[in-house]
Amino acid sequence: MSKGDGTAAVGGPGEASSTVEIGGLALPKPLADAIEDGSWTRPKDAEVLRRVFGDEPDGPMFYDLPSMTRQNRSFQQSALQDVFGDASATSLGVSPRQAVLIGDLGAEMPIALDYREHAESPRVIYLGPEGWIEVTPRIDMLLDLLHGQG
Description:
Layout: E1 7-10, E2 19-22, E3 25-26, H1 29-37, H2 46-53, E4 61-62, H3 65-75, E5 99-104, E6 110-114, E7 123-128, E8 131-136, H4 139-146
Antiparallel strand pairs: 1-2, 2-3, 4-5, 5-6, 6-7, 7-8
């Protein structure tokens, strides 16, 4: 069932939503659950972000569903060159139509789910100074690192 904002909830009558989609890509359950229960928030300690992402945060934001929908509406239509999408020796690149922005560490420092290799379990990537890098192979691993269990 569509919610009219680019997200979709799938479930039968009386059932809890089982799938949340952004731009046609299903969010992994650990992230959808963290958004729903309010735990998808940036750590208060900036040192955690520096350790996990290897970069200095500058006004980090972890997107809620309306923000994710808004951010991805234009991102997923972007050309590769507009989002540093080409792979290189230092960058994994990104395919905007196979990625979902989930937050950022600051302006031009997006955090995304990359669905190119595993549609059911996308890896977490980040656009750092050298290009797109893998942060963790799965979102549950990022959640653990951010909130003290990794």
